[in-house]
Amino acid sequence: MSKTNKKHKQKSLNNSTEKIKRHFSIVVYFSRIVWKEKKAYFFYFVIGILANAIYPFVNIIGTKWIVNEIANPHRTIQNLIYIAAFMVVGNFLMSTLRKVANDKKSLCLDKVDRSVKTMINNVSMHIKYEDTEDPEILDMLKRTIKGYDEVGIASLGNLYHSIISNFIIFVGVSNIFIQATWILVVVLLVDFMASFAIDKKEMKINYNFFNKKADIERGIDYIINKLPSYQYGKEIRLYDSSDMILERQNDVAVNLKKIEKKQVNELWKIEKWYHIIHRVCTGLVYAILGIDTLNNKILIGEFASLASATNAFSYSLNCIVSNVMEMGYCTNVMKEVYKYLSMTINDDGDILPTIKNDIVIEFKNVSFKYPRNDKYILKNINITINSGEHIAIVGENGTGKTTFIKLICRLYKVDEGEILLNGKNINDYKFDEYVKLLSVVFQDFKMFAFSIKENIVIEDRNNQDKEIVELCEIGGIADRVNSTNYKLDTSIYKLFDEKGVEFSGGEAQKIAIVRALYKNSPIVILDEPTAALDPISEYEVYNHFNTLVDNKTAIYISHRLSSCKFCDRIIVFADNTIKEEGSHSELMKLKGTYAEMFNVQAKYYS
Question: How many CB atoms are closer than 10 A to CB 241?
Answer without folding.
Answer: 14
